[in-house]
Design a protein that fits this description.
CATH class: Alpha Beta
Order of helices and strands: EHEEEEHEEE
CATH architecture: Roll
Helix content: 10-25%
CATH topology: 2,3-Dihydroxybiphenyl 1,2-Dioxygenase, domain 1
Structural class: alpha/beta
Distance between the termini: 22 Å
Radius of gyration: 15 Å
Largest sheet: 4 strands, mixed
């Protein structure tokens, strides 16, 4: 079972604001690990760990979150001034997907899976 996804970020506050805007998450806690502040954001059934690291070249390839409607998600984020970096796309299997770029170049995908 997935516990959390760790994302290396160069600006902790900027990334915190970004993820609280695009996802239904709230800051749960900050931890000090070897002098580095780690921030955990918690949503329903998942957590994100923001790890400050301006020297790291390590980035998560992409993070995908299921949504009821890709179209609705796009409209919600447009109201916050956030535009897709790619898509939306309609896939052969009926799924719809759209991509956004996070503050450090990480790719965030929202996917609508039609059962």
């Amino acid at each position: 079972m997935l516990h959390h996804i760790g994302i290396y970020v160069t600006d902790l506050e900027k990334s915190l604001q970004f993820y609280e805007t695009i996802l239904p998450v709230k800051k749960k806690e900050s931890l000090n690990w070897n002098g580095i502040e780690l921030v955990f954001l918690v949503g329903k059934g998942f957590a994100l760990e923001l790890i400050p690291d301006s020297l790291s070249d390590s980035r998560t390839t992409h993070i995908a979150f299921a949504v009821e409607s890709v179209e609705t998600k796009i409209m919600e984020l447009q109201q916050s001034g956030i535009a897709p970096s790619e898509g939306p796309y309609n896939l052969e299997n009926g799924w719809q997907t759209v991509f956004y770029e996070g503050p450090d170049g990480e790719e965030v995908e929202f996917i609508q899976v039609n059962d």
